[in-house]
């Protein structure tokens, strides 16, 4: 039974009614959703899902959006077959649930995906974006993986990697001003630490009035007050990828 008095704050937003233009494939030991542009390209983006998993229509929508901008996009199952979080789950059990799904322990899966993109898709320049749990995973990868060109962390949970800021690649951080999960003081501290320790290009941007999940968990057509920021966040994400891939 869900704990209605303490719902999961990640449940904010809208579930898209969206089927996807790509296909599901087997990539090594994991499943993945892949979408390719009509023209051949050597550019690719790994899309790292949030707690709702690789099959969430919202995340596939973003992958397809990347494809319309000229990238091969792949959204692998970084939970490796474990169940994604469901809105009906009891939020009180969340901490135990997420402990078995560590955003800092996806290197094996990323290596398999990188090999697939290079061997099967002809990718030579590869970036990564991620949302919430996936945003934290992006920060982890930007700290250690030499094979990626750049990353976009979209409301990534800062507390997962709060003591590590020596990024290897240009990284763009997107946050909402009204995010209940990531307080603005955490964002300010992140900026300070990056300024002190980071030798590569980075940007931290806060979008006014926006809550957690706004870039991929809100629909423009039923959130008119948020529409400009949803569109701006997506445009900024694409522009950053275009600059560094």
Automatic annotation (TrEMBL):
GO CC term (a single one): cytosol
Positions of the Dienelactone hydrolase domain: 30-244
Keyword match Cytoplasm: yes
Database matches in InterPro entries: AB_hydrolase_fold (IPR029058), CMBL (IPR042946), Dienelactn_hydro (IPR002925)
GO MF entry, a single one: hydrolase activity
Protein name as catalogued: Carboxymethylenebutenolidase homolog
Location in or out of the cell: Cytoplasm, Cytosol
PANTHER family: CARBOXYMETHYLENEBUTENOLIDASE HOMOLOG (PTHR46812)
Keywords on record: Cytoplasm
Family: Belongs to the dienelactone hydrolase family.
This protein's encoding gene: Cmbl_1
Gene3D superfamilies in the cross-refs: alpha/beta hydrolase
């Amino acid at each position: 039974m869900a704990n209605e008095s303490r719902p999961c704050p990640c449940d904010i937003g809208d579930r898209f009614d969206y089927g996807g233009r790509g296909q599901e494939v087997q990539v090594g030991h994991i499943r993945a959703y892949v979408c390719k542009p009509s023209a051949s390209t050597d550019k690719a983006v790994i899309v790292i899902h949030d707690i709702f998993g690789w099959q969430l229509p919202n995340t596939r929508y973003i992958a397809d959006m990347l494809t319309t901008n000229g990238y091969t996009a792949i959204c692998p199952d970084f939970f490796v077959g474990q169940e994604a979080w469901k809105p009906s789950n009891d939020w009180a059990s969340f901490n135990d649930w997420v402990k078995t799904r560590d955003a800092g322990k996806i290197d094996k899966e990323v290596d398999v995906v990188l090999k697939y993109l290079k061997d099967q898709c002809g990718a030579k320049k590869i970036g990564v974006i991620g949302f919430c749990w996936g945003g934290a995973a992006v920060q982890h990868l930007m700290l250690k993986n030499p094979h990626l060109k750049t990353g976009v962390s979209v409301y990534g949970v800062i507390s997962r990697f709060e003591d590590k800021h020596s990024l290897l690649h240009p990284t763009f951080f997107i946050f909402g001003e009204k995010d209940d999960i990531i307080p603005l003081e955490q964002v300010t501290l992140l900026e300070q630490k990056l300024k002190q320790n980071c030798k590569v290009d980075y940007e931290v941007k806060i979008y006014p009035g926006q809550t957690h999940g706004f870039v991929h968990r809100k629909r423009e057509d039923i959130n008119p007050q948020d529409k400009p920021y949803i569109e701006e966040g997506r445009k900024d994400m694409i522009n950053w990828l275009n600059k560094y891939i």
